[in-house]
């Protein structure tokens, strides 16, 4: 069974799920406008590969401190339905469908909080998820993360841990779809890297390496 890996943000969907979640929290009364503006400023650093993911997660998880897993699950299900599903690229849907029909193993691997990525992946029909792990104590979020963050080289580390001794064999024929320079460590690990609507740095790197460059668009263009 071959392995197909997908980044989530700006790869499977048109947009960044973490930023969309921040906007959703604003509309649901879980955050204020100042929170959203600070989150957007931090994401500018992410686009340049300069953001501290530890700082970002500490900031964005703070509003959820003390909230129950049950309540957040309700919110993320609504979020995925209304904010994620309309942004899924048609080509992404078709790629996922064809991979499933071929009996391939699909994993979404993302540098976004697990509760967001799990809800988004569920809408796409993908069951396996590697994301930034959030801490729960007695069924409530603490605002902390757990373990290695699945960001940049951390994606490789988390995937190695997840796949265990099967990692070397699976990676030889694995495909990974991503848009971001931040995913170059993992793109260089797989046998078949594919870049989707890449940022400038990744596009230049992909052209140099001869990697496929895909242009995915939403139905409205």
Automatic annotation (TrEMBL):
Highest taxon of the lineage: Bacteria
Entry-linked Pfam families: HAD
Presence of keyword 4Fe-4S: no
UniProt keyword list: Hydrolase, Magnesium, Metal-binding
GO MF entries: hydrolase activity; metal ion binding
Protein name: HAD-superfamily subfamily IB hydrolase, TIGR01490
Organism: Pasteurella testudinis DSM 23072
Taxonomic lineage from the root: Bacteria, Pseudomonadati, Pseudomonadota, Gammaproteobacteria, Pasteurellales
């Amino acid at each position: 069974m071959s392995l197909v890996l997908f980044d989530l943000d700006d790869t499977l969907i048109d947009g960044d799920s973490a930023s969309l979640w921040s906007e959703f929290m604003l509309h649901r009364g879980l955050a204020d406008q100042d929170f959203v503006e600070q989150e957007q400023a931090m994401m500018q650093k992410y686009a340049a590969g300069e953001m501290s993911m530890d700082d970002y997660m500490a900031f964005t998880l703070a509003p959820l401190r003390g909230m129950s897993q049950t309540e957040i699950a309700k919110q993320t299900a609504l979020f995925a339905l209304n904010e994620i599903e309309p942004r899924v690229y048609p080509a992404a849907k078709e790629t996922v469908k064809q991979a499933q029909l071929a009996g391939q193993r699909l994993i979404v691997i993302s540098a976004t909080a697990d509760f967001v990525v799990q809800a988004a992946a569920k809408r796409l029909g993908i069951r396996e998820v590697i994301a930034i792990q959030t801490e729960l104590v007695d069924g409530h979020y603490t605002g902390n993360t757990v373990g290695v963050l699945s960001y940049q080289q951390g994606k490789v580390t988390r995937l190695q841990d997840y796949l265990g001794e099967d990692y070397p064999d699976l990676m030889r024929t694995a495909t990974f779809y991503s848009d971001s320079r931040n995913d170059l460590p993992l793109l260089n690990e797989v046998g078949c890297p594919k870049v989707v609507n890449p940022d400038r740095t990744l596009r230049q790197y992909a052209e140099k390496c001869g990697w496929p460059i895909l242009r995915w668009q939403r139905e409205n263009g």
